[in-house]
């Protein structure tokens, strides 16, 4: 599979995905800016965007190889199997193949997918290359997990996770019960993937800000109306992030939104001043991660913080 490409693809791709422009050697162009949870791990919206873009592989027999040699057995099992569906659940990606076999990928801190069109020679560090005919290849590099699961094993994995706000089958009442029973601050609860799946540090900070909830408040102390407000905000922000390929929460027109740097379009995450009221942003550690809140828009008095 080879060939030259005279123009670079300009479509934006999700975090962990890069569209590769090829000359005589595969040479990826970094067409989208990386939007992770602050610790290098793509948040849930990134996996949903990735699943959306990989629909181009669905309905075709897989062409699978492991240039690195660390997934040779799995690639051999995938090769020639028809891909039935691609889906995301939280920070996990699933390729469902005929015969009840599933490719499970968790990108972790270093993992990424590169999309090459047309496909060229694979780099030696590629854990898995998936292709369709000779037109496109998706190369997986440095994932935390890349494994084959049967349907029961996938169900068991998902069963350990809380609901994913981006999925149509998400049970908001289950998330509410999980938060009500959580024995710590709401900022820690939202990072616990068994409470709600797909939320990372950026989404935690920005969605709590937009909902007017301080991250240090006891999770069990949230009212149902506060939770409902947060849930609606989280779904809206995550859905827009799927489209944008990054998390932007400032109120921007479409033209500015397409050009602005991420750090200039967030309200409190790693900001010196709140972009709403101008107050100095408070930083603390909650759930083992840096947390950010505005003392005016998310009053500390309601959080029981001195």
Task: Provide a quick synopsis of the model.
This protein has eight helices and twelve strands.
Can you tell me about this structure?
This protein is an alpha+beta fold and 306 residues long. The chain folds into two domains: 17-159, MutM-like, N-terminal (N-terminal domain of MutM-like DNA repair proteins), CATH 3.20.190; 172-303, Helicase, Ruva Protein, domain 3 (Orthogonal Bundle), CATH 1.10.8.50. 25% of the residues lie in helices and 21% in strands. It has eight helices and twelve strands. The protein has a six-stranded mixed sheet with strand order 2-1-7-9-8-3. The longest helix is centred in the C-terminal third of the chain and has 21 residues, at 224-244.
Outline the low-pLDDT stretches: 1-34
Distance between the termini: 63 Å
Number of domains: 2
**Secondary structure tally, helices:** 8
H/E topology pattern: EEHEHEEEEEEEHHHHHHEE
Helix content: 25-40%
Tell me about the largest β-sheet.
6 strands, mixed
* Outline: globular
Give me the CATH superfamily of the largest domain: MutM-like, N-terminal
Strand content: 15-25%
**What is the topology, as strand order, of the major beta sheet?**
2-1-7-9-8-3
Radius of gyration: 20 Å
Quantity of strands, as a count = 12
Structural class: alpha+beta
Second-tier CATH architecture of the largest domain:
Alpha-Beta Barrel
Predict the CATH topology of the largest domain. N-terminal domain of MutM-like DNA repair proteins
User: Average pLDDT value?
Assistant: 87
**CATH top-level class of the largest domain:** Alpha Beta
